[in-house]
Amino acid sequence: MKHPASREFFAYWDGKRGDARAPERSDIEPNAVRERLGDIFVLSCEANYPFRVAGTRVCAMFGRDLKDKSFPALFAADSRSEIEEIVGAVADEMLPAIAGLTATSSRGTLSHLELLLLPFNSRAHTPISLTGLLAPFDNIDGALGEITLSSWRYIHPPQEPLVPRALRKLRIARGFMVYEGLR
């Protein structure tokens, strides 16, 4: 992590999770991270990963309110499927991720940003969501256009091999489940 805001938010998240893979959403106290609230967002793990909450600086970077807007839609077409996979792995595998991003502003200047994605522990009968932080390395000159993913990695990958996401979803399925059988 290169950006101080990312390091600070990750340290807070890491402290809240303790020995668990991720903290509960209710464990994150907005007052404790008030200096970073403008850079923080929450995504719902529904189709297109819509923003549930987006900080004022995040919205200002794109020149519009992002609530209920698709997170992957902010990315250029060649980066969109990759960011969807990363967000899916953060939510499903509970792996924090960090990414380097670039975007061109409406005035033609190139901006470099850092994206931090952190999972929340999921509970039965609650919607799955994750949090993140988007911080620019320099001043943004005008609203940003499409984002391009330049680098990314998972933070502290688990020692055991990852189970494919489709199988993991079956393993943690809640409630009544019907399995098709042979005739």
Describe the structure.
The protein is of the alpha+beta class and 183 residues long. The protein has one domain (4-171): PAS domain (Beta-Lactamase, 2-Layer Sandwich). Helix content is 25%, strand content 26%. It is built from four helices and six strands. Strands 2-1-5-4-3-6 form a six-stranded antiparallel β-sheet, sandwiched between helices. Strand 1 and strand 2 (51-54) form a beta hairpin. The termini are far apart.
Q: What is the first-to-last residue Cα distance? A: 54 Å
Number of domains: 1
Count of helical segments?
Answer: 4
Question: Which CATH top level class fits?
Answer: Alpha Beta
Largest sheet: 6 strands, antiparallel
Number of strands: 6
Helical fraction equals 10-25%
Molecular shape: globular
Report mean pLDDT, rounded to a whole number.
Answer: 87
Corresponding CATH architecture: 2-Layer Sandwich
CATH superfamily: PAS domain
Determine the structural class based on helices, strands and strand pairing: alpha+beta
**Which regions have little confidence, pLDDT < 50, spanning 5+ residues?**
none
How are helices and strands ordered from N to C? HEEHHEEEEH
- In CATH, the topology is named Beta-Lactamase
Strand content: 25-35%
Arrangement of strands in the largest sheet: 2-1-5-4-3-6
Instruction: Tell me the radius of gyration.
Output: 17 Å
List the keywords.
alpha+beta; globular; 183 residues; 4 helices; Beta-Lactamase
